[in-house]
Amino acid sequence: MIENYIPILIVLTIGAIFAIVTVSTSVIFGPQRPNSEKLSTYESGMKPVGTTHERISIKYYLVAMLFIIFDLEVIFVYPWAVEFKRLLGEIGISVFYSMLIFLVVLELGYLYVFKKGGFKWD
Amino acid sequence: MNIPIEYYLILSAFMFFVGVAGVLTRRNAIIVFMSIELMLNSANLTLVTFSSYLGNSIGQLFVFFVMTVAAADAAVGLAIIIAIFRNKLTVNIDEINILKW
Amino acid sequence: MFNNAQEFFNTLPLIIMGGGIVISLLIEIYSDKNKVILPWFTALLFLAVGLHSLFYTNDVSIVMQNMLATGGNVNIFYAIFTLGAAVVTLISIDYIKKYDMYFGEYYLILQTSVLGMMLMAAAKDLFVIFLGLELMSISFYILAGMNRKRAKANEASLKYFLLGSFATGFIVYGIALIYGSAHTTSIDFITTNFAGLTSNLLFVAGVLLFLIGFSFKIAAFPFHMWVPDVYEGSSTTVAALFSTGGKSAAFSAIIASLFALFNGPSGNVFTPYFAVISVLSMFYGSIVAIAQVNIKRMLAYSSISHAGYLIIGLAAGNHDAIAGVMFYLGAYTFMNLGAFGIVSLVEGKNETNLDINSYAGLASKKPFLAALLSILMFSLAGVPPFAGFFGKYYIFIAAIESKLTWLAILGVISSAISAYFYIRIVVLMYFKPATNDFQIETSNSAMLGIITSVIIVILLGIFPGSFLDLITRFI
Fold it and tell me: What is the spatial distance between Cα C153 and Cα C146, in angstroms, rounded to a whole number?
């Protein structure tokens, strides 16, 4: 069983050797004449401003959280949609209404967020 | 080339204990929270393993529920951490100590 | 979903509760008078669900593809949760105004937490237990931090959140192992095959992890460290809900999921676990409570020791013990709610008057309130003829039936110790001069809630048999 992994090991080794060889050749043989322009951060030709560790506005938190919550609810819809035809034959129309109730409750949550101003940026 | 079920179980048990150790030793509230998520994910891995091993889908369904609940947990938990950061400007558990443990 | 109209009718408590949450949400976002409507709507909703469930306890059935049980003890648990939550709502109305922290979401989340508790009690599948537990716990984390401008509330909420989700991790992993060994999450299957399954090490490990997680939620000894901090830091009314509803719900889930444990012979695999944590919680709670100066912390430690008495019932594991646990949960819910309600009334703005010594001389200034608090304290201490006494009595008798006499004796000793700190408050109120001028804002709704709970405590004490009959009919 373990011998099945040998091709992967070979690929990994070749990849590692290739990366090490190319990077070290350019460091060893390439000419190095640093000046301040070359050492500064590349910012599409602009002068770099501020530090890299900027604090992000707290408003992103709200957007991200709302996204995660509403996004994750979709994982219930996918299996339902895939199995819908089979379940409709087996159980009947209540399959449809269960999901309808779920989505209505979800939309109520959306309505709540909307009314409370969760989507306002300023 | 089947991977035996024990491998998955050992991996998930290991993940679970890494999570427990993280909760007990780390001092940053967010990292503690990440360790808790790791525990939940190890449980998810166990559920999926058993589900595929036993050939019934209950375990996978359960994983869906655990994932959604974990998302709700994350939303509430991060909100609590933000509220505490606004008041105290720290998320270090050792400095959050008005109430004695 | 439902095979016939009767099944739909049996599920009505849950449906009314869910529908009530939707209506409350609409009230909160669309009504201009939501500050007036929402609290009273919440209280009435709880009352309606509670009375409905009490009235239709005979409709025993299993609905929703073997997911939910209805009727019988499930309905009695519903009544305990919802009537308790109704009292919490009543004492909250003026308390929230006193602290100037009105959010409509407070009542909404109160309702969702109660829906979670009800799901836990009704569960016939580990799925439903998990969902109910998380619905309840996540609501509790929010409620604990509701007063978000206060650092103490933030801290309480963070601690509750971290330790609560830690416990959830254990529960989920335990459920995963149970699923792996039993090949299903259906509680009925686990119940019927319990004896065979206990020879499977994976199953025992799963149940142990599950129990450890729930020990967090019921605040038993080695997993109690969050309790005093959370009760002290969060609002008094919310702490009242944590200590009563949260604990009863966790016990209801243990009883629902591990019912097989309590059907078998008393010498089952998990009795030692229960016995050890019950002794530790009883004594730890009663002894540490003596040293407390803050009354909310004292009540928190007392709640740990009460968890210990309740676990004696789980350790005994016969039918009488389960009936005793349910009786005690009902009694304890209303004793504790009344006590927390009075604390929330006496408490001044900015958390003054929370010291035990600030209750000195309450009897001379507010004789009625002091009399009510004394009744509740006597009941908590287990003095007859109040409800607390009979709860302990039934549990200890059941423990002796299961040949756990030593556990019952330890329980009696521990309640004797705990009587000290309950009676101390009564002594302070009646025999010490007043040092405090008790600027108590009158609150009719809170008084209504407190008086109702005191009346229930007295009634359960005078007629314990009728409530016990109701419970034992369904075990």
Answer: 7
pLDDT attached to residue C3? 73
Q: Is residue A111 part of a domain?
A: yes
pLDDT band at C142 (very low <50, low <70, confident <90, very high): very high
Q: By C-alpha distance, which of C272, C185, C278 is closest to C224?
A: C278
pTM: 0.90
Q: At what angle do helices C444-462 and C319-346 cross, to 10 degrees?
A: 150
In a domain, A101, yes or no: yes
pLDDT at C441: 77
Q: For residue A104, what are the domain limits? A: 59-115
The shortest C-alpha distance from A52 to chain B (Å) reads 21
Looking at residues C122-146, what average pLDDT do you find?
93
Query: Measured between beta carbons, which residues in chain B are less than 8 angstroms from residue C212?
Result: none
C-alpha distance from A65 to closest chain B C-alpha (Å): 6
Among C355, C374, C386, C461, which residue's Cα sits nearest to residue C423?
Answer: C374
B73 vs C184: CB contact, 8 Å cut-off?
A: no
CA dihedral angle for residue C205, residue C211, residue C213, residue C215, rounded to 10 degrees: -140
User: E strand or H helix at C2, and its extent?
Assistant: none
Confidence of residue C266 (pLDDT cuts 50, 70, 90): very low
pLDDT tens sequence across C282-331: 999 999 999 988 999 999 999 999 999 999 988 887 888 888 999 999 99
Touching check for B47 and chain C: CB below 8 Å?
yes
d(CA C48, CA C461): 25
Q: What fold characterizes domain B5-95?
A: Helix Hairpins (1.10.287)
Alpha helices in C31-149 (DSSP H): 34-55, 73-99, 104-122, 126-144
Can you give the pLDDT at residue C264? Answer: 58
Question: Are B43 and C134 a contacting pair at CB < 8 A?
Answer: no
Does A65 fall in a domain?
yes
**8 Å CB contact of A76 and B1:** no
Which residues of chain A are within 8 Å of residue B78 when distances are taken between CB atoms? Answer: 61, 65
Average pLDDT, chain B: 88
Is C28 in contact with A112 (Cβ distance < 8 A)?
yes
State whether C161 and B62 contact (CB < 8 Å).
no
B31 and chain C in contact, CB less than 8 A = no
Domain tally, chain A = 1
Chain B partners within 8 Å of C151 (Cβ): 84, 87-88, 98
What is the spatial distance between Cα C267 and Cα A95, in angstroms, rounded to a whole number? 45
User: For the segment B30-54, what is each residue's pLDDT rounded down to a tens digit?
Assistant: 999 999 999 999 999 999 999 999 9
